[in-house]
Amino acid sequence: MYRGDYTNLNKITKILTLLMVAYLLLPFLGGALSLSDWQAITQIIHALKNPVVVSALKTSLISATFSTMICILFGVPLAYTLSRHRFKGAVIIEAIILSPLVVPPIVTGLFLLVIFGPNGIIGGVVSDLGFRFTRSLVGIMLAQIAVASPFIVITSKAAFDEIDPKLEFASRILGKGPLETFFKITLPLAKGGIIAGLALTFARAIGEFGATFMVAYHPRTIPIQLYASFLGGGVPAAVPLAIILWIMSLGVIIFLKSFEIFLGGWVARTKRNL
Amino acid sequence: MLELKEIYKEFPSFKLGPVNLKIKKGIIAILGPSGSGKTTLLNIIAGIIKQDKGTITLNGREIDHLPPEKRHIGYVFQDFALFPHLNVRENLLYGGREGDLKDLVNLLNIGHLLDRDIQSLSSGERQRVAIARTLLTHPELLMLDEPMGSIDENLRKKLWIELRNLLRQLDIPVILVTHSKEEAMIMADQVVVMGNGRIHQYGSIKEIYEFPSTAFVANFMGFENVFQGTVTDTNPERDVLKINWNGTELTTSFRNVAPGTPITFGIRPENIMIVREGKPVGDLIRDNIIEGNILRILRKGGIYEVIVSTSSGYVTVDVPDHVFHRIELNKKSHIKIGFKRNKIHFMESLPEN
Q: Which of residues B66 and A5 earns the better pLDDT score?
């Protein structure tokens, strides 16, 4: 596409763009500065040998993995329903799904506590049976799911919206039931969007702090441990954990971007001449 | 055999029905302008859209309550709806069995395409793959929605013949939806004309051309002279029915219609003659002679189409070349035209939807 001539407006836009990117690079600079100290590396290695950190790492990976799986299990069918059926109240449901993106996680966490806390409606009942959400992996996952689920729903719905319903009808007419049609036609065609949603959901879940802080301070996830270490020993104590979390999160972006490049080609190939 | 009984479907801005239709065998074209409900009707038969009322029977089986996958109907969509993530072979085997593949692949001449991606196929190849994919499921009825809709115009003529020859080899009824009269004429044995969600006429293309049953069909088929009038007088003994057409009195054969009844009628342009000055007027056309001015003359193939402005309205008259030159029509401006009683063709008016 021809993108037009160079104008003064483009100059201003370019400057603003550069400033924005520069600012967004500052955390990288901070990360790099923290790493530049040769001691930092030994500190990270040291941290990775620390049972507290190892336990936090385990807690984070397990909870985020299961939270993501649960988000997919419920979020993908929800996204499909929203994409294929126009019904009264769909707008309201969509607004509810989007709400975790705008409501501060600490608020979501506090309200979850009202429900799942030891004195909460559900938490109270479970508490009588000797189980506390607030001191369990389940509590962490409740917080992560509440905050991370919009990503899988939004990206999957966008992917489903792109699929011509006629392809699904064609499958039905060729003798396949609704479930088989979903798994053989809809899902393979939407897989790009769903995988992107999966990665974003995982990244959001593993980095979740605010809601987790309210609902389940124990067992500690990496973000919670980072906060605890910071309170105990300031920046130097928190940096190794921050770098571990930073690299894990950037890994998701790298995965997503490389997948997008691969997928971009796939989409182009699929759409060409269709 | 497919039988539709009293099918109705209402949308916020469109109403289909009542549709009653029996299709035994052969190729049936559902012909009509866009928005007439043709595709909606196919979608109802296929089970993609649920009708509000009515029953659908296929070979004695009531299928209207069944999901699409249990109806045993083949449906080729306008854009073919081939699965973009599967190659040709995978598309074909999606609903069919490996064992049946060979015969159909030969019939449709797609053997060389089996390992190709869908994206690399031409529109004509896609059509053949889509038809083969459908036939592999052994449907009891084949439906094609605008089969030439995504085919390049200059390829259509060739494909019409190919497709017709292919469809004739099938021993199941074929329903073909099209907005093209030409396509219906070339491909179909019988034609169903649809308009405004209703079936206006069901018959051979010849019948529909010559005796359109409603004004809608007449207009759609390009029947030129369709007029509204009122019956003024009837007399069975003298075999007469008189019509007032905007002040002009026309006479035709007796029909049992009460005076005062509004009617729609048509006169084909080739059935109207030029009355020559000073020559005796034949008995047969004596009753229906109208005067008017020549408004326009168009050359059309072997004839001249003459549009005459009369006091009651415009009348199109087809004049063969030799007649046109013999009577030197191009030098005249005021003429008389006439037609025989039995050339007035009556049309029904369907109640408005």
A: B66
Number of CB pairs < 8 Å for A and B? 68
Q: Given an 8 Å threshold on Cβ–Cβ distance, is A169 in contact with B134?
A: no
- Chain B residues touching A185 at Cβ < 8 A: 83
A265 touches chain B (CB under 8 A): no
Mean pLDDT of B86-103: 92
The beta-carbon neighbor of A176 closest among B74, B95, B117 is: B95
Query: Considering chain A, what is the average pLDDT of its residues?
Result: 88
Check if A84 contacts B (Cβ < 8 Å). no
* Cβ atoms B287, B273 nearer than 8 A: no
Q: Please state the domain extents for chain A.
A: 36-271
Min Cα–Cα distance to chain A from B171, Å? 19
Question: May I ask the CATH class of domain B225-347?
Answer: mainly beta
User: Is there a contact between A174 and B77 if contact means CB atoms under 8 Å apart?
Assistant: no
Q: What is the pLDDT of residues B148-178, one digit of tens each?
A: 988 888 888 888 888 999 899 898 999 999 9
**Chain B residues touching chain A at CB-CB below 8 Å:** 46-48, 67-69, 71, 73-75, 77, 79, 81, 83-85, 94-96, 117-120, 133-134, 137
Q: Which residues pair with B5 in a beta bridge?
A: B55
Strand B314-320 vs strand B262-267: parallel, antiparallel, or unpaired? unpaired
**DSSP-assigned letter for residue B112:** G
Instruction: Compute the mean pLDDT over every residue in chain B, rounded to the nearest whole number.
Output: 91
Q: What is the ipTM of this complex?
A: 0.83
Rounded Cα distance between A229 and A211, Å, is: 19
Contact A126, A132 (CB under 8 A): yes
Closest chain A C-alpha to B76 CA, distance in angstroms: 8
| B2-220 CATH | 3.40.50.300
Spans of all domains in chain B: 2-220, 225-347
Closest CA to A205 of A151, A136, A260, A257: A151
Class of domain A36-271: mainly alpha
Tokens of A196: 């992107």
Condensed to tens digits (0 to 9), the pLDDT of residues A231-248 reads 998 888 888 899 889 888
Partners of B69 on chain A (C-beta within 8 Å) are: 172-177
Average pLDDT over residues A29-50: 82
Q: How far apart are CA A125 and CA A132, in angstroms?
A: 10
- Position A95 pLDDT exceeds 60: yes
Contacts of A274 in chain B (CB under 8 A): 84, 118-119
Residue B31, exposed/middle/buried by CB under 10 A (0-12, 13-18, 19+)? buried
B322 Cβ contact partners less than 8 Å away, ≥ 6 residues apart: none
User: What letters, b where the CB count within 10 A reaches 16 and e where it falls short, cover B275-306?
Assistant: beeeeeeeeebebbebebebeeeeeeeebbbb
- The Cα B183–Cα B6 span in angstroms is 28
